[in-house]
Structures are given as structure tokens and as C-alpha cells.
């Protein structure tokens, strides 16, 4: 096999591990899913090298980079050796240029069986964009719809436990899709990393049927690629999930007000304060009740007077309606219906 390989070829390796040699700042902006960042230059050095390249000369920039990389080589090589014990390493930088070529050339010169990603991260992004524009057409999506708190995510979890293919967009986005969707969750991924995770999961599916929740285009700050969005929104397999108001309130309390996360109350209050379209008096009343510990009435008020009226549904649009008083039973009914 050639040592400079495309992403598609790299995926076929038995134990691939992508090594991103770009700076930590570049890595954070976007990287191949599950790649490991082993930067050949830190953020400051990378910035300094870029300045030299633009204002002095490419030769001066390379000389500065080589000095820094030389100082780091012993530690860098040790880290690479530990990873090589378990994985087949594929190195990449921005576009398959100086940074990844330098490390790749050094390691291959030492006889190490490593690979370089042809075209680097730029080529991967082109591959990702092209694949995400077509891959959704390979699947039959079963789309769960319903009001806030009806337990759609619970059903997805039950389906996954039973071996069904599930695309949990909210989990990938680290956001539940509402104004309060960020509360109690880690920071959202960048748009590029959201797409990288989506691509990884979709490429892991080997059957046509995929269950997911009927999310809108935006989930917090990230946006689902349009071809995927259109594929599940236009699917004939639309399911409406129903649940009693009391059970919906209980689910929201359990999700947003965990006993081990007392800061969630403050997060909820801050979010309420930012909701300019909400009636000011109702908003202040909700804040006061949260401070007093009366979360149930706040949740009920928000659902009945704020969220539910904005959720326009026509039951004729749905292939199936399910009561979700028990998510295990609901998942079993879905499996029976679509098997």
C-alpha cells in the first residue's frame, strides 16, 4: 500500500488513528473525528512562523519551525511510539504540506510504518462535504416528533439499547434544541466538528433504517447539513409522540434540575433573562418562582404558554402516533411497526 493515502483509503486500515499535527487552535476549530492532536508547533510558534512567511520569506519561516520542532522531537517521538503500539498512524496537517510531510518523512526514514493523509485536512473537508451531500439518500429515516418533554430522546436510547440504528442529533450537538438546551451540558462542538461526528456515525451504519428526532435546521449554534435535514424531514416515516402534561413536567425537571448540578438553576434564570420575546411580567414571575424552588409551575407555564403554541402539528402528517408513558414499551412498538 502507498504511504500517502486518501481519507477513504485510511478508513479501510485495520486500526487507523489520525494524528493532527496542526496547532491546538486549528485543531479546536475543526478536526477529523477522534483524531489526536500532536502539534509540531504550539499556537504562538505557529503564529510567529506564519508572520515570518508573509513578511520575511518562506525560508525564514521554515528555519524557525525547524528550530522549534527539533527541540520537541524526543518527547514527540516517545508519544508517537506509544501510539504505534496499538494503532496505524495517519498524519495530517492543513493541506498535506510542510508540517505533516516533515514528521512523516522523519518517521518513514527511521523505518516506522506510518501514513500521511493526502491533501491534509483540506482534502478531508472536501470529502466530508461531498459525502454528507449524498449519504443521507442511502437510509430510510424514522423521524420522532412531539412536544417538549414527551420523551423522544428516551425512546431513542431504548431503541439503541435494542440494537437499532439511532442518529441522536442532540447528543452530537451537545444541545437539546431549545432556549434551555445548553443547560447542564458541555460546550457545543464547532460546526466542522459537528459535521465530522455526523459523518463518522452515518458511515458506521450498515442498514437502511435509522431512527432520529425531528430536529429543526439549527441545534443551538450548529446547523445540520441541508441534504440530511431534507432527507429526514421529507421521510414518509413520521411518528408523533404523545405524553401527559404531568409526565412531561417530570421529565423536564429530571433533565434540567439534577441534584448534583445546583448551578443549573442559575443557568435557567440567565436563559430566561435573555428571552426577549417572552412577556416581561411572565418572565419575571418565572424567575421569582425558580428562586423560590417552584420549578414545576415554571415548567408547566413555559410549556403551555410558550413552547406548545409554537409547535404547529397536524396529525394527518404522521404515519404513527404513540403514547410515551413508558419509553421501553414505545420503543418496542416502534420496532414491531417498522420490522
Describe what you observe in this structure.
- This protein has 339 residues and is α/β, with parallel strands linked by helices.
- It has 15 helices and twelve strands.
- A five-stranded parallel β-sheet has the order 1-5-4-2-3.
- Helix 3 runs antiparallel to helix 4, helix 6 crosses helix 9 and helix 13 packs antiparallel against helix 14.
- The longest helix has 27 residues.
In short:
By secondary structure, the protein is α/β, with parallel strands linked by helices.
Topology:
Layout: E1 4-5, H1 7-11, E2 16-20, H2 24-29, E3 36-37, H3 43-55, H4 58-84, E4 88-92, H5 98-109, E5 115-117, H6 120-132, E6 140-146, H7 152-161, E7 166-167, H8 169-173, H9 191-204, E8 209-213, E9 218-219, E10 222-223, H10 226-233, E11 237-242, H11 245-256, H12 263-273, H13 280-292, H14 295-307, E12 320-323, H15 327-338
Parallel strand pairs: 1-5, 2-3, 2-4, 4-5, 6-8, 6-11, 7-8, 11-12
Antiparallel strand pairs: 9-10
Main attributes?
Rossmann fold; 339 residues; Oxidized Rhodanese, domain 1; alpha/beta; five-stranded parallel sheet; globular; 12 strands
Main beta sheet, described? Answer: 5 strands, parallel
Distance between the termini: 42 Å
Q: How does the helix and strand content classify structurally?
A: alpha/beta
CATH class call of the largest domain: Alpha Beta
CATH architecture of the largest domain: 3-Layer(aba) Sandwich
Strand content: 5-15%
Coarse morphology: globular
Q: What is Rg?
A: 24 Å
Strand order of the largest sheet: 1-5-4-2-3
Counted up, domains total 2
Summarize the helix and strand pattern as letters: EHEHEHHEHEHEHEHHEEEHEHHHHEH
Average pLDDT, all residues: 92
Q: Count of helical segments? A: 15
* Count of DSSP strands: 12
Model regions low in confidence, pLDDT < 50 over at least 5 residues: none
Keywords: Selenium
Organism: Facklamia languida CCUG 37842
Domain Rhodanese: 12-133
Protein name: tRNA 2-selenouridine synthase
Amino acid at each position: 500500500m502507498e504511504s500517502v493515502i486518501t481519507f477513504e483509503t485510511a478508513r479501510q486500515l485495520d486500526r487507523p488513528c489520525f494524528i493532527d499535527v496542526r496547532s491546538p487552535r486549528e485543531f479546536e476549530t475543526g478536526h477529523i473525528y477522534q483524531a489526536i492532536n500532536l502539534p509540531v508547533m504550539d499556537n504562538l510558534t505557529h503564529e510567529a512562523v506564519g508572520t515570518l512567511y508573509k513578511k520575511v520569506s518562506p525560508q525564514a519561516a521554515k528555519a524557525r519551525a525547524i528550530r522549534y520542532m527539533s527541540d520537541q522531537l524526543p518527547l514527540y517521538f516517545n508519544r508517537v511510539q506509544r501510539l504505534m503500539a496499538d494503532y496505524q498512524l495517519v498524519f495530517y496537517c492543513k493541506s498535506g504540506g510542510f508540517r505533516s510531510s516533515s514528521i512523516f518523512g522523519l518517521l518513514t526514514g527511521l523505518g516506522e510504518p506510518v501514513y500521511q493523509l493526502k491533501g491534509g485536512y483540506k482534502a478531508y473537508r472536501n470529502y466530508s462535504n461531498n459525502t454528507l451531500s449524498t449519504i443521507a439518500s442511502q437510509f430510510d429515516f424514522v423521524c420522532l416528533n412531539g412536544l417538549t418533554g414527551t420523551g423522544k430522546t428516551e425512546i431513542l436510547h431504548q431503541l439503541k439499547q435494542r440494537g437499532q440504528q439511532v442518529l441522536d442529533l442532540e447528543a452530537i450537538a451537545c444541545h437539546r434544541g431549545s432556549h434551555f438546551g445548553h443547560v447542564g451540558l458541555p460546550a457545543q462542538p464547532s460546526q466542522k466538528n459537528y459535521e465530522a461526528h455526523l459523518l463518522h456515525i452515518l458511515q458506521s451504519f450498515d442498514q437502511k433504517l435509522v431512527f432520529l428526532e425531528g430536529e429543526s435546521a439549527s441545534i443551538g449554534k450548529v446547523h445540520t447539513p441541508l441534504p440530511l435535514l431534507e432527507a429526514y424531514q421529507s421521510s414518509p416515516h413520521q411518528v408523533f409522540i404523545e405524553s401527559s402534561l404531568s409526565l412531561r413536567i417530570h421529565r423536564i425537571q429530571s433533565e434540567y434540575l439534577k441534584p448534583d448540578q445546583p448551578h443549573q438553576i442559575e443557568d435557567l434564570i440567565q436563559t430566561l433573562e435573555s428571552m426577549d420575546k417572552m412577556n416581561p411580567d411572565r418572565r419575571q414571575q418565572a424567575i421569582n418562582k425558580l428562586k423560590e424552588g417552584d420549578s414545576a409551575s415554571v415548567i408547566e407555564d413555559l410549556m403551555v404558554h410558550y413552547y406548545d403554541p409554537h409547535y404547529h402539528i397536524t396529525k394527518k402528517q404522521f404515519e404513527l402516533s404513540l403514547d410515551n408513558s413508558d419509553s421501553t414499551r414505545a420503543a418496542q412498538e416502534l420496532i414491531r411497526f417498522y420490522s
